[in-house]
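Blackboard transcription, Thursday session:
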Amino acid sequence: MRPILMKGHERPLTFLRYNREGDLLFSCAKDHTPNVWFADNGERLGTYRGHNGAVWCCDVSRDSMRLITASADQTVKLWNVQNGTQLYSFNFDSPAKSVDFSVGDKLAVITTDPFMGLPSAIQVKQIARDSSDQISDSVLTIKGPVGRINRAVWGPLNKTIISAGEDTVIRVWDTETGQLLKESDKETGHQKTITSLSKSADGSHFLTGSSDKSAKLWDMRTLTLIKTYVTERPVNACAISPLLDHVVIGGGQEAVHVTTTDRRAGKFEAKFFHKILQEEIGGVKGHFGPINALAFNPDGRSFSSGGEDGYVRLHHFDSDYFNIRM
Amino acid sequence: MAEVISMADIEASAARIGIDLSSINLDSIQLPPGEDFGIQSGDDGDLYQDDPLEFEGGFGNIIVVDNLPVVPPEKFEKLEGVIRKIYSQIGTIREGGIWMPVSPDTQKTLGYCFIEYNTAQEAELAREKTNGYKLDKSHIFAVNVLDDFEKYMKVPEEWKASEIKPYMPGENLQQWLTDEKARDQFVIRAGSNTEVFWNDPRQLMPELVHQRQYWTESFVQWSPLGTYLATVHRQGAAVWGGASTFNRLMRFAHPQVRQIDFSPSEKYIITYSSHEPSNPRDSHRIVINIFDVRTGKLMRDFKGNVDEFATGGSGGVSGISWPVFRWGGGREDKYFARIGKNVIAVYETETFTLVDKKSMKVDNVVDFSWSPTDPILALFVPEQGGGNQPARVSLVQIPGKEELRQKNLFSVSDCKVYWQNNGEYLAVKVDRYTKTKKSTYTGFELFRIKERDIPIEVLELDNKNDKIIAFAWEPKGHRFAVIHGDGPRPDISFYSMRTSQNTGRVSKLMTLKSKQANALYWSPAGRYILLAGLKGFNGQLEFYNVDELETMATGEHFMATDIEWDPTGRYVATAVTSVHEMENGFHIWSFNGKLLYRISRDHFYQFLWRPRPPSLLTTEKEEEIAKNLKKYSKKYEAEDQDVSMQLNEQDRKKRKMLQDQWNEWVAKWKQWHEEERQFRIQLRDGEASDEEEEYEAKEVEVEEVLDVSEEIVADQD
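(Written on the board underneath:)
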């Protein structure tokens, strides 16, 4: 497997997202400019200029027409995917950490960080079909979790929102009332900050990665813990294969230790696990720093990883990969 | 203390009596003075608990000095001055800490006084130093710690025969040796846990035997034959063992114990502590106790200043080199010895006194070591008088103290002594100055202890200037390995003390060029050696067969810091301990370099295999077994196969179960997904939404009329 190295960012990567067809790959980094690439050959198509801070997260609409990005400059921006123009900008009082379009793309859930005495929050915005009708008011604001909320996504049929973050607890919220419906168990759940959350293709289950060196698979509707994958490093990113029963987990030791240890010692590998047997299948090396972002192509035949080193590595699987027997 | 009332109870009772708790400002409520409604404040409780701490240990810091002169009031102050002078030298006397009672009738003193020190240690020291102090002929001090009075007062007046307890058979402390699968145990310390495991290479994982949190306060140590596991605590050391689990077998009281050491047959245990002096100008005080392991009886104690125990040569800042006492005389635990200034003090364990009642005088001796099997001491005396008196290595027989062999060595900078573990050979690594005295080179003096007159042979490496990085004898064997060289990739040479024709000459077997190794680990059974590159080489491992002179396997345990063979020589453990922040844990390898399993643990401190006592089989029997190995191994191979089949079967079942469980989940999800489809389409404004529809291949037949032409077919009629 020869990866395609994509150098378009000058700072560590934060997030990767494929569009539904799997022909476009959007990348966010701590520099201020999200990029879009051809997911097939890694050619850069364009950039989205306008943010004034690290971009933490993005999502693309189902028709691949609109991109939404969450940034540390306290804004969430809507973009025209095709020509890179900014359609709208939501302003907040604190950095925005994650963003997710609902089914139907009419709503977006945004999380904001605790900042200057403000607590962290989950906010739901209505997304107008025509950006000239766009309003900035939140439909719903949820507060409660302590510390940063690193990711919030929509549950089935937009009826719930699932959030996870620094307080190690996964919560399911009702989108009508904003009420807390379920909480993950402290005992069996993660022991340290949850850094990432990734849904399965059909939205029936999701995977969380945590600094406690494990990733856990949960049922989306009942919040039942199904599987746990244990690694040797804090987990920064994770993704579920849409094609095979595989999950991929990436991380590495904390950024502060990177300069003092050998690259080999850092374990900057994207590790593949068998989703059902929880056994390690293999690893993909290459990054010079911890892996911060992972995403599978919707066809399951390639995946990309983004690292602290500022590179995106795009891997098309060899045929051997599809013949792995466990 | 009043019973604890929870917030929920308070809320409940508030609701019952109709009070809105949120409307009450709790700070505004003032209790009548002295009334606490039976609820003690938590803060006060802490205070009460703190107080007794000060008096902990009673009056251990007060001594009573008896046999003082009885003086009239005129001379009272003078006597007090004398006493103060004597006792303030030893430690700090508390203010008003001297109290000399006076008889109310005669106004004369009563001939005794109390002195209060800052610490119990000072009081103890004062008692030791001044008990029997002669002030003058008729006044010999009798000094006691005040606590002792109380202790001796409690002794009953009448002697009673102590009850003889009926004999209770103890546990079989060597139960672990009877393991059916002949496995070995090891202990690890990680975080606050200490755990003992079976090494189960067939299952490719360890099996937990016993686990305990905060089992020890600093480290654990197996006794040399593996019977006991010793733990170290503030109050002393303890040994643990037993048939199925680990029970505490004995405690050895020794406050602030720092180091422990067992005698080779684990009859005795030596504990060591050093105490900060109260006066910064004084040197540290050292206490060494020797206990009988089984009875817990204190056999002998040594107390003194660091200087008395510091070895002659070093005398530096650190002073003490551990172990202070080294055990000799092989498996009988007969002798132990320590080095002092110009002396070697050899003690015997029958009486725990010096052999011949005096220590052995050896001028300027700096180092000594015992033969592992015989009561023979090897001594090293460095060069004296600027080279006029040569350095000397000599072998001394105990208890006779006669010199068996001596070798003078010229222009020597340093010597190091290596015994082969059967006591057959002794290698002395000698660093000599070159003529210019600017650099040194290294040679070996090889002693054959078991041969007549102990012949000595000199061995120099092919390249004399090579630095010696490591040296190791083959256990129970006649070979040794040396890592030598200057560059980043040194060479490794193997030598034998025998040659094919002549048994009396050392011969070189092989040199391996430019290896990434800096440490040598022979298998305890000999024959195999692990060449390891620790530290700078990041944990390179090479498993080498010295019989065949070939490499069996190479491996790597990145950042490995510690390596230990199991006592049988079947497995090797490599570990990364907490000196590194990352990668903590251990790997278990087979003797031929196959990685069997890995365990990672954060804050990994120790890995120790449980030692085994020496085999009871005779050499002939061992040889016979080796000869018929095939016959014996059949049984074990069959067992191995059974286990692996069983494992496969288990594994298969487990996988099937996991897969079935998963399928259940998937079925459920599919059902939900199906049920929700309509809603989903609605949410997407009627757009056909599910993937399966989008990509469904539909065969559509389309008929299209391209052209119509009429042709008149001629009637063939």
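Lecturer's comment: Helices of chain A lie at 255-258, 263-266, 319-322.
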